[in-house]
């Protein structure tokens, strides 16, 4: 037999076994190299950029520096809104985990006399975008001193600076000024490109919102070298934050306070004081009001939030920019419609009676008997309803609507905070035929009762105090519709605005303006507004108004619209007291008079 002997086969078997072991080791080594290579490829190529960023973040940290929001000042430089510095306790995210955190938490709890549970809740509220975690709200001075004294023994914790909005006059001009609150995650997702950060506060209402870009400033930051333990080693550089710009307003603080005081006893109402020459708002009050300092509080109880946002009193609603039935202050529109239509020229006289029938209703005069044969001036002086029924019905709804539009009704006034404004309503035939906003077209036709009511500012007419002020400013200045404003700057560009150039001419005949001016002067000289006369005031022109509350069917509203001096007007004052039975001469007039007194006798 040809082959190896048993003794020869044994060495061969050993050689084969040796080769198998080496092959296995080689395979294992090759597999290890492949795994390591794959891991290196994954870390360096696939996730290379992400890991390089992480590596840098392990040694370098950017600490944003918050800008100070600009102040708001009244026309004389009095501070209406400012920001005040506060201190908060922060911890770096790296130190907010593991045994080091438990030790730090215990020391901070003891030092500040704050339950560890509270610190833990704040740590757990960490958001992905936070570069540090706020462990407390505003620190007391004593707490701040303790933390600063023991800073070296509190690794990872630091006292930081924050700025909160402050409104030194509380509720005064709250609806004009507005308020700020922290930016939300959703807002941040589309505002990051504009320089907003997760710690930002943003203007929500009023001028805080309208002039957000002017007031907010620009964030800065510090670049810090940090050890593996999270301790700051040294600063590497700093870009200072840019403070926001101050904003000077047209408001007069003293006049604003006088207007607030004048209307204080009325639960719901508004006051607007305006320069009729260019539309500058000197005072704007809305009742009820709120304290914007509430929104700077670190903790906002739910009961107080509900009182602001869910209350039937609607304290957040700006009554100066929202519509109500105006009553007789709207009769100047009806008078203008009559004269401009040509149906009832300025020299017209009409017979007034106890009541006049339109449709199925006899519409009364307010004195129950009428005023005989009178013209426009005496009709305004006595506020005769039956005179204006005849003018309104005879002119027609579209003529009334056209005159209203020319005087600024049914449209936004152009004020910077117009996003809070309701343009109101002046009903007419086309509006009724289209369904009145709630019915199918053709189901709600215009009827005689509508026209009679609209003629005296009732039922289908709703206007805001700001719109009334704008219309009376046009009468006062002889035909220019001004644009109300609270600042001399354009809110979009921050550039100065020539507000006189923003005025629009109202295409009424000179005789129309003259007739309205004479009539409004007679109202105060010897009419329903006689109580406005005072030895300390110049001649005042104005109009009383008493309106049914067609929205909530409550008590009558009281109005008074006025301007002075009659021959060279400097100020328009409109006062509105909701659901105050007794009439404009009883409630609206005293409010307006107090504001006039404050303006002319500071």
UniProtKB/TrEMBL annotation:
The keyword Transmembrane helix applies. GO terms for molecular function: penicillin binding; peptidoglycan L,D-transpeptidase activity; serine-type D-Ala-D-Ala carboxypeptidase activity. It comes from the Bacteria. GO terms for biological process: cell wall organization; peptidoglycan biosynthetic process; proteolysis; regulation of cell shape. Keywords: Cell inner membrane, Cell membrane, Cell shape, Cell wall biogenesis/degradation, Hydrolase, Membrane, Peptidoglycan synthesis, Protease, Transmembrane, Transmembrane helix. GO terms for cellular component: plasma membrane. Transmembrane segments: none annotated. Belongs to the transpeptidase family. This is Penicillin-binding protein.
């Amino acid at each position: 037999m040809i082959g190896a002997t048993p003794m020869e086969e044994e060495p061969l078997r050993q050689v084969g076994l040796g080769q198998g072991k080496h092959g296995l080791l080689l395979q294992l080594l090759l597999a290890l190299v492949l795994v390591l290579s794959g891991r290196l490829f994954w870390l360096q190529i696939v996730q290379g950029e992400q890991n390089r960023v992480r590596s840098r973040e392990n040694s370098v940290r950017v600490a944003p520096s918050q800008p100070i929001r600009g102040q708001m000042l009244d026309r004389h430089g009095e501070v209406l809104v400012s920001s005040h510095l506060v201190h908060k306790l922060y911890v770096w995210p790296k130190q907010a985990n593991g045994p080091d955190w438990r030790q730090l938490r215990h020391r901070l709890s003891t030092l500040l006399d704050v339950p560890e549970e509270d610190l833990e809740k704040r740590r757990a509220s960490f958001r992905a975008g936070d570069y540090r975690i706020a462990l407390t709200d505003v620190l007391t001075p004593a707490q701040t001193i303790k933390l600063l004294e023991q800073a070296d023994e509190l690794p990872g914790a630091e006292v930081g600076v924050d700025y909160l909005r402050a409104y030194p006059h509380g509720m005064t001009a709250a609806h004009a000024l507005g308020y700020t609150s922290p930016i939300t995650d959703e807002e941040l997702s589309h505002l990051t490109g504009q320089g907003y950060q997760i710690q930002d506060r943003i203007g929500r209402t009023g001028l805080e919102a309208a002039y957000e870009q002017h007031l907010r400033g620009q964030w800065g930051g510090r670049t810090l070298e940090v050890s593996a333990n999270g301790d700051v080693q040294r600063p590497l550089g700093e870009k200072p934050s840019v403070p926001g710009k101050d904003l000077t307003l047209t408001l007069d603080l003293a006049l604003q306070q006088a207007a607030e005081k004048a209307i204080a006893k009325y639960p719901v109402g508004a006051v607007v004081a305006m320069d009729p020459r260019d539309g500058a708002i000197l005072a704007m009050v809305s009742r009820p009001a709120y304290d914007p300092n509430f929104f700077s509080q670190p903790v906002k109880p739910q009961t107080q939030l509900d009182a602001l946002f869910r209350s039937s009193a609607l304290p957040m609603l700006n009554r100066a920019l929202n519509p109500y039935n105006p009553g007789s202050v709207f009769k100047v529109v009806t008078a203008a419609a009559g004269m401009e239509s040509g149906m009832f020229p300025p020299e017209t006289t009409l017979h007034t009676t106890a009541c006049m029938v339109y449709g199925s209703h006899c519409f009364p005069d307010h004195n129950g008997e009428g005023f005989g044969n009178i013209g426009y001036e005496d009709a305004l002086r006595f506020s005769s309803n039956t005179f204006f029924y005849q003018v309104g019905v005879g002119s027609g709804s579209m003529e009334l609507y056209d005159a209203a539009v020319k005087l600024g009704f049914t449209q936004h006034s152009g004020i910077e905070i117009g996003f809070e404004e309701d343009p109101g309503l002046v009903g007419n035939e086309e509006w009724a035929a289209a369904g009145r906003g709630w019915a199918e077209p053709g189901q709600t036709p215009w009827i005689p009762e509508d026209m009679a009511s609209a003629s005296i500012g009732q039922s289908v007419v709703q206007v805001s105090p700001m719109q009334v002020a704008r219309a009376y400013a046009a009468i006062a200045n002889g035909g220019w519709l001004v644009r109300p404003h609270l600042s001399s700057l354009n809110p979009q560009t921050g550039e100065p605005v020539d507000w006189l150039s923003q005025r629009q001419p109202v295409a009424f005949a000179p005789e129309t303006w003259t007739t309205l001016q004479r009539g409004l002067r007679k109202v105060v000289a010897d009419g329903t507004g006689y109580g406005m006369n005072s030895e300390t005031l110049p001649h005042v022109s104005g109009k009383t108004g008493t309106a049914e509350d067609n929205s909530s069917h409550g008590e009558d509203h009281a109005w008074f619209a006025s301007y002075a001096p009659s021959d060279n007007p400097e100020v328009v004052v409109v006062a509105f007291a909701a659901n105050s039975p007794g009439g404009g001469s009883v409630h609206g007039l005293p409010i307006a008079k107090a504001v006039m007194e404050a303006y002319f006798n500071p």
